[in-house]
Amino acid sequence: MVQEFEMTDIGLMTHFLGIEVMQRDDGIFISQTRYAKDILKRFGMERSNLVTTPVESGVELRKSEIRDVDPPFQKSAKQIQRYVKGTVNDGLFYTLTKDFNLVSYSDSNWERDLDERKSTTGFTFFLGDTTFIWSSKKQAIVTLTSCEAEYVIATSVVCHEIC
């Protein structure tokens, strides 16, 4: 490649698209410590108390036609920021291995959205023992059965695997 293109070796990668990268002999560690600290500073939460869960159990946030942020939503947003404060140095470690097993899991929650009756679906992909892609979102269509909701997410997972 050096023969075809003008290149300069600047050493090991330390940052990529806002992600901090630490390369070691046994693997690669990635995190977003700087970004998390910037968010906490932006919202004045640098000195906030820590919490161990991002959202309180049983909290349901619903759409509202009101333009102002309602108190339950605001409380949940602060809870998430306190959780980020406690996990600011966490990240993902990808172990150096020759065994690259790709494993995926998916699930759906049929008609859980009380406003639009759409299912929430999620999936995660593991490469070896570390997650490398995940998603949780509302399905674009209304499904008529829980089986159909599961089929929609299974189709999405297969598309992610082969694309």
UniProtKB/TrEMBL annotation:
Domain Reverse transcriptase Ty1/copia-type per the UniProt entry, residue ranges: 1-56
InterPro entries: RVT_2
Pfam families documented for this protein: RVT_2 (PF07727)
Official protein name in the record: Reverse transcriptase Ty1/copia-type domain-containing protein
